Each structure stands twice: as C-alpha cells, then as structure tokens.
C-alpha cells in the first residue's frame, strides 16, 4: 500500500481528533460511541491510536450517533 501524503495525513488526523473531542464532550467511552454508531469499538480504538483511518460509512454512522452532519464534523475539524 502506498504511504499517505502529508496533506492527507493532516486531514485524517484532524478528523480523528475531532471525533475524539466530540466523544469527550459527551463523556462517551469508545465502546459507548461504537454502540450508538453501530460499529465495532475496535474501529474507534485503532483509529484513535493511529493504526487505521475511519471509512466513510463509519464516519457517517459516527456523525449520526453524535446527531450532527458530516459537513458539521468537517467544519469542527476546520477542513
């Protein structure tokens, strides 16, 4: 697999950080978010420690769990 370019890494890092912040604001654990988003909690755990990136379907599920749009997530991430 081709390594990600620096610009892409920066975008993915901002999105991951924003999901973490939104989760922390609600005082949700990784497992709580996973249950609310109907995704595996290891997806959240592995993404937060940098082993993988969120897929588009995962991000859509996460934003629905937060009650926000994908556009709002990107705005919060300052993208």
Shape: globular
| Rounded average pLDDT | 95
Report the order of strands and helices: HHHHH
Number of strands: 0
Biggest sheet statistics: none
Question: What structural class do the secondary elements suggest?
Answer: mainly alpha
Low-confidence spans: none
Radius of gyration: 12 Å
| Helical percentage | 55-70%
For the terminal residues, how far apart are their CA atoms? 25 Å
* Residue fraction in strands: under 5%
How many H/I helices?
5
Tags for this model:
79 residues, mainly alpha, 5 helices
Report on the architecture of this protein.
The chain has helices at 6-25, 30-37, 41-48, 56-66, 70-76. The chain is 68% helix and 0% strand. It is an all-alpha fold. The model has no long low-confidence stretch (mean pLDDT 95).
What's the helix and strand layout?
Layout: H1 6-25, H2 30-37, H3 41-48, H4 56-66, H5 70-76
Brief summary:
68% of the residues lie in helices and 0% in strands.
């Amino acid at each position: 697999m081709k390594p990600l370019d620096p610009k892409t890494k920066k975008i993915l890092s901002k999105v991951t950080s924003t999901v973490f912040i939104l989760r922390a604001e609600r005082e949700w654990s990784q497992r709580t978010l996973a249950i609310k988003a109907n995704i595996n909690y290891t997806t959240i755990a592995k993404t937060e420690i940098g082993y993988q990136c969120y897929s588009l379907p995962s991000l859509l599920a996460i934003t629905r769990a937060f009650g926000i749009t994908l556009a709002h997530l990107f705005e919060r991430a300052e993208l």
